[in-house]
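Good morning C.,

I know you're traveling, so I'll keep this short. The sequence:
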Amino acid sequence: MSAPVGVGIIGAGVISDTYLENLTSFPDVDVLIVGDLIAERARAQAAQYRVPAWGTADDVLAHPDVQVVVNLTIPAVHVEVSSKAIAAGKHVWTEKPLGLDREGTAELLRQADAAGLRIGSAPDTLLGPGFQSAKRAILDGAIGRPLFAQASFQTQGPDLWHPGPQFLFARGAGPLLDMGPYYVSALVSLFGPVDRVAAVGTRPRVQRSIRTGPAAGEVFDVEVPTTVQLIASFEGGEQAQGLFSFDSALERAGVLEVHGTEGSMFLPDPNHFVGEISRVEPLGVLLDDFRPQQERLEVPLQGAEVGRGLGLLDMVRAIAEGRPHVASGELGHHVLDVLLSAEESAAGAGFVTVESTLGAPVPVLPADFDPFARTL
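The tokens, ready to paste straight into the viewer:
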């Protein structure tokens, strides 16, 4: 790949702001064009972030200097748009989920492999200094051998703040498919592939209303469970339990704990790139009349603080260096398989075997990875 790498963005919605802000700051990347179904929206984003061209998705795919397409469309068309980018000879970075079904995403990976192209899939919070510092500490033995993990995301729901939240309550979203990828991707990155999963889910309200923005008061249908609890068993023998809810009066997000033979670690919110990391060591003795306070020992952060777009940057550098990238399409496909299996279990299937796996462990980002250096 040449330097800087030409990038085109398809989808100029809310999430495009953080991508454009970050990608336009990386010396190894050159954002050349923004495309959207609503051309005026693409024009406005291009103007705000000083991107030289704007237009439709087809304009992005036809741009001769675009080497990587960033797919920020709605989940229902992720596979369709990514497949067109592959057919146009472009590498792809896609927002989560990779797709909505196993077959379509597996075929997408086959298309990319046959074309000699890469696919990267959000979340790229995995590459943030918060998670990467915690992962390095765990690999170095900070809590001994990891045994199990606990995760929790609880909120009243995105209808409280999003001006157009309907898609977050539609097939392919809900708390499981919208927020689950952050937590499950982190767990798979730590433990390896999931072997089987079980879940229960509820949908207490079949309709909700928009609370903010020009459409406030508009009622929309809820298509998926809005509270899901799951249990996952990993191929290596580890276990995890998770709670994902859009029905909780108590706001509790970002809970991710990993417990091992020699201690427990509190990881940063998987939806954030930085955050506090700490661990506790086992007690020497516990008496009926003595309950000691366990001291939290800080684990230092290593790496530059960045946001979304970091996964794409790692991917283009990995292509140039001939190494695997961290947030791969294979990882995205496996995480989707886990979440779809959880959906099937919640619908009454009991424990569901996860058929997909990973060809290799998820790589660790070097501690000296500098997004603002020119390396290509």
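Safe travels,
E.
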